[in-house]
Amino acid sequence: MKNNSFIYLLLPLIFFVWSCEETVETTTPIQPKHLVTVSLVKEYSRADFLNTLGQNAQFISALVRGGVRQYKIVYKTKNTEGTDILASGAMTVPVGITDKVPLLSYQHGTIFNDRDAPSYFSETGGEGQTATLIASMGYIVSAPDYIGYGETKNIPHTYEQREGLATASLDMLRAVKEAIAQEKLNWNESTYIAGYSEGGFASMSLLKKLEETAASEFTVKAASCGAGAYNKTLSFKTMVNTPTSGIATHNASYIWVLLTYDNIYKLNRPISAYFVEPHASQIEKERQNARITGNLGDLLNPTFKKGISDGTDTALLAAVADNDVFDWKPKTTLRLYHGDKDDYVPYFNSQTAVDAMKKRGVDVELKTIVGGDHATSISEFLLGSLQFFQEKR
After folding, report:
1. Quick one: DSSP state of residue 370?
2. Cβ atoms of residues 12 and 135 within 8 Å
3. C-alpha dist (Å) from residue 251 to 283, 326, 392
4. Is 195 within 8 Å of 109 (Cβ atoms)?
5. What pLDDT is attached to residue 274?
6. What is the pLDDT of residues 30-58, one digit of tens each?
7. pLDDT under 70 in the chain at which residues?
8. How confident is the model over 341-359, as pLDDT tens digits?
9. How far is the first Cα of the chain from the last one, in angstroms, to the nearest whole number?
10. CA within 20 to 30 Å of 18's CA: 95, 169, 234, 387, which one?
């Protein structure tokens, strides 16, 4: 869910060595079906981009292969009710690299501020900075804002909702593919998928939807998902019955999930059906921006907790189960990362996913980050994912 400063966490990557890229002949340019506009925001030379990184540049300069162009993409997609809407995202492109490069679909983690969405290209730690840095290493990057940010900032974000995240990410990827043809970019026709926390869940959801509905459109070489809440059913049952971290931003995320599912699945319950006072009134007013400390279970309505525990709240449990993405059979080589001390998105999400997938004969691996919590595990996820993708190139 929450993604920390990408620049700082990438420092261990200084020891990473890039190898040569195999190339594939590009296909005939396609007529845009999803792309609406592609707008150049800014271009950096390698030296200028390194200058934007400040003192961190000395640690990662060996990884930066060239300059970068930043583009804002506006594209056609659908909301969760199937209505056509225009969404946005960032496309970042390496400059000064002569070999053909792969496409990487990067799904961002939880953000509470619209200005942190990728297409704003904030230089103060926003997700556009992450996409830009990845591009400088030799990837064309597709980074959807998701529904709820950028062009769709006036629509509720589909927080931790499988179909909303997957649809926005897949249609963004399609739009970027069309922009690649339009801008005559040097793509080698291969694609990778990665994301951490909410981005991990979004990446898993994207992979599932892509394989089921758009397998012929992309050659996905590998996917890497970090610390995502893939097993929503077990997560809900655990969080209502087991003490949680009590951290206010963690509680805000859990509150947000409940509000999102209540809205999208049209349960239309009052806030008091989920939370006790005085918290219900605060959440009614502030929604996911409410900052409440303490064990999540102490905030919840006892009747709601009982319905989850004994299975009698069938409507909500059906909504939760619709967002389970842990037990299916991906065809793509898949790697999961998770810290075994994660008190935000429990480790069992990745363990149960790997166990279920291996029973289905899936080529999947879990990299357990021993002693890692949600924040401290990000750097190992990033380093490992890029090395993993390099091995598959």
Report:
1. T
2. no
3. 11, 23, 38
4. yes
5. 98
6. 578 999 999 999 999 999 988 888 887 88
7. 1-30
8. 999 999 999 999 999 999 9
9. 28
10. 169
Distance, CA of 50 to CA of 78 (rounded, Å): 37
Q: What CATH number labels 6-230+326-391?
A: 3.40.50.1820
Domain 232-321 has CATH 1.20.1250: no
Q: What is the pLDDT of residue 392?
A: 87
Map out the domains of the chain as residue ranges.
6-230+326-391, 232-321
Strand 334-339 and strand 364-369: the pairing is parallel
The pLDDT value recorded for residue 1 is: 52
Please enumerate in sequence order all residues whose Cβ is within 8 A of that of 344, keeping only pairs 6 or more positions apart, or say none.
Answer: 1, 2, 197, 227, 245, 247, 250, 253, 373, 374
pTM listed for this prediction: 0.92
Query: In angstroms, rounded to a whole number, what is the distance separating the alpha carbons of residues 276 and 288?
Result: 16
Where would I find the H helices in the chain?
6-9, 46-52, 57-60, 127-136, 162-183, 198-213, 232-241, 248-264, 279-286, 296-299, 302-310, 314-321, 348-359, 378-391
Question: How wide is the angle at C-alpha 47 spanned by C-alphas 42 and 48, nearest 5°?
Answer: 35
CA 140 centroid distance within chain: 17
244 contacts 297 by C-beta, under 8 angstroms: yes
The closest of 120, 114, 127, 143 to 288, measured between CA atoms, is 114
